[in-house]
Specification:
242 residues; mainly alpha; two-stranded parallel sheet; two-stranded antiparallel sheet; elongated; Ubq-SigPath_Reg; OLC1v1021622C1; CTLH_C; LisH
Amino acid sequence: MSVFWFVLGRPADFESMASSKKVITREEWEKKLNDVKIRKEDMNKLVMNFLVTEGYVDAAEKFRLESGTEPDIDLATITDRMAVKKAVQCGNVEDAIEKVNDLNPEILDTNPQLFFHLQQQRLIELIRNGKVAEALEFAQEELAPRGEENKSFLEELERTVALLAFDDVKNCPVGDLLDISQRLKTASEVNAAILTSQSHEKDPKLPSLLKMLVWAQNSLDEKAAYPRINDVSTATLEDPAI
């Protein structure tokens, strides 16, 4: 993370490299990194933000006790949010909808796209379980009216119903709808909506900062050869190829 703050925090240094590609030794680079001061409190907040947003309630509670970092949301609400997410991931969409309404009925009332995607996931689960007649009835009564009001909904509905036209649904052109990734996508959308309703950011800050780190290094590569981080999971500096 120090590389990120160094690159973006010192534009004058960055611009001085623009005239020619400069070679920076590990000793010089580490000295520059050590000159950058990052408060431990800020790092702790980043960790807590990640744990809370991703729903690691036990880890968040333990981290709160060990670091003294208070979350900006009631940790008890995480358990309820994770119960909704787990229900979708397991294909229990009706249960998930009920849990969302228990948390806050306005979430689905004010987000027609989310409600449609949950209903679409319900339809997918009916097809997955071979309940063809029930799936057709559900599509006609619950989803078709919404498709008439929204073109994008109609296209998604037609693609989902197309599953019924194939004997081998898992290997058909729209078979990806039956992949676990589809459930995860819907669960992620629900999770984000609940976080937004709680006035909390829907995405954790840490992954975004890591993406910015990669972008900053790629930009700096055009100006200088320096020890860079190629594996963000270890943050190990690797000497430049000269």
